[in-house]
Hints:
Keywords: 2Fe-2S, Cell membrane, Disulfide bond, Electron transport, Iron, Iron-sulfur, Membrane, Metal-binding, Oxidoreductase, Respiratory chain, Transmembrane, Transmembrane helix, Transport. By secondary structure, the protein is α+β, with helices and mostly antiparallel strands. The chain folds into two domains: 158 residues, no CATH class; 139 residues, Rieske [2Fe-2S] iron-sulphur domain (Rieske Iron-sulfur Protein, 3-layer Sandwich), CATH 2.102.10. The protein is 35% helix and 16% strand. The protein starts with a strand and ends in a 26-residue tail after the last strand.
Amino acid sequence: MARTKGGLTVTNPTNPTPDHDSTAPATREHGAAPALTDRFENPGLPPHVPRRADDDPKAARRAEMQVVGLFTISALASIAFVVAYFAIDPDLKGYLLGIGEVNLYHVALGVTMGLSLLCIGLGAIHWAKTLMPDEEVVEERHPQASDDDDRLAVGRQLSHGWRSSQLNRRAAILGSAGGALGLFALPLVLPVVAGLGPRPGRGLYTTNWEEGTRLMIDPSGAAIRAADVTQGSVFHVMPDGWVGHAAVEEHGAEEAMLAKAKDQVILVRLDPEIIQSQKQRDWGYEGIVAYSKVCTHVGCPVALYEQQTHHLLCPCHQSTFDMTDDCKVIFGPAKRPLPQLPITVDGEGYIVAAGAFREPIGPSFWERNRPGLLGVDET
Length: 379
């Protein structure tokens, strides 16, 4: 026999399942240890102590309203989380006693999410301790194989459990618990969805490269003559006017940092005989080619050039691009080649851009093939 309390079933030692012939006379060899039933007396089940809510309808109603109140507070806290997420400035600072200066945006999100989860837990615990069934149940062991009568009995027991949980009578608890649990999903899902940031739009299509812009060595700011670029040499370049402290002074720190993130280009001179792409030859100049350094995986700077293999390597996630074949991906998580910057030389022999990028730089995104966003000749 087994007894169940709080979902835990234990064997009743007074009625063990026999593993021998029950009709054989009980015997004990001399010196053998006494049987378990001889050493321990069955303590039986403790008397059931009813709770106030079991006998007093007013106490039960009061407990029900307390549970509903906790679930309602949880739901309101979840809604407050959503409001705070959009309404509070993420850079808002303030002071808390005993802590000092804090980011009030983070405090508001943490408090509302914590309160929402806390009230769900407290409501569930209070519901279980005051209204759910609290009686101990003794269950006789039965064969493992279930017959139709056993399945019917289980169905009746489940039905009894449903009725005894009083969910069919206390719709307020069921509704408030469902609302609290459903709304609590918002603080978990909203940061993931909204945290993806704004849609890129034209942001990744526009750079400071345009026709006639000189390629300047970063960070020295020196212009580059085509005659000075030897085979195998590598230059990290930026557009004229966007290099070093001069860019910060002229355009401001924020614009200079944005340009640094989007406009960086790597310039390499290859043997024209090993270049496989006709477009790569046409957009280069006598084997000199320029490609965006912004990796098409997650935007890390592709800054490692292997002179023997002519491969460009991204140090973040090891995406590898073949410079002899229009910087196509030959290894790693990146999914598309690095965009090429068309170049030529001006009247003084300096390398200049022959136009803007013909495709968006940086990571792939869902709008990149949308017609009309590039704003330049895409052929």
